[in-house]
Amino acid sequence: MPAPAGKVMLGSYLALGGKSLKQSLALRRRQLGREQRIVNRFYPWDGYVPTSEPEIARSSVLMVSWHGAPYAGILNGSSDGNIRSVARKLKGMRRPIMLRWGWEMNGDWFEWGGAPNGRNAADYIKAWRRLHRIFGEQGADNVAWVWSPNWNSSPSASWNQVQKYYPGDAYVDWVGISGYNFYNETPSTLFNPVTDRFGGKKPIILAETAAVQGKAKWIKKLHSWVEDNPAVGAVVWFDTDIQEGTDYNFRFDTDSAALAAYRTMARSARFSG
8 near 226, Cβ under 8 Å? Predict the structure, then answer.
């Protein structure tokens, strides 16, 4: 489900303090004059996974960021039933879905990262391919696979290089990147390494991005960077002010200048995918 040639799908993960998802979507619709083209939702590995997302417009693509798990419990087959169940539920939604499983695997902050799994990127690949095979067996043809590393690796070690986790072209539909402007990082710093390596063979999605300071200026830089990088087919803003474990406010409407910059980006021809 790539965006139309030369166009970018613009969407978000939405979790605004004091508002339901429906209310948050309505606010952004009023501010931007458009629907979210992609809506990112986080699902647990083996907890509740819904059978529908009725609040998300049918014109929007649902991106499911599905939590990973330690590799051993996937590779030994004990998770196959859970994987089949999720595959059937996503298939049953009867809508285009971008599945972003086990994201930021090259970081050391999730249980599915390479660091807590024996520093073995090869086993991540095996786990990914097992999921991919089971989804295929369940006929979940509405699912596009988003492989989504962090913009840099932690720890920075040879065994933890981004490319060592890549499952292979046959198993990946989109290449994603997580990258935030925390300390004045430019879009080029955050996104060029992954885009330069994979953008020639797969569409790129900025699967998680946002700015926490100098927002208007940074959004303008992001807009320009995307204009200059035709491999980018989607951008998903991490749009929340209630992220657990942090005081950061990632919303783009914290001041009028930032909102104006984001609105200009959202209404541009490049972002009309």
Answer: yes
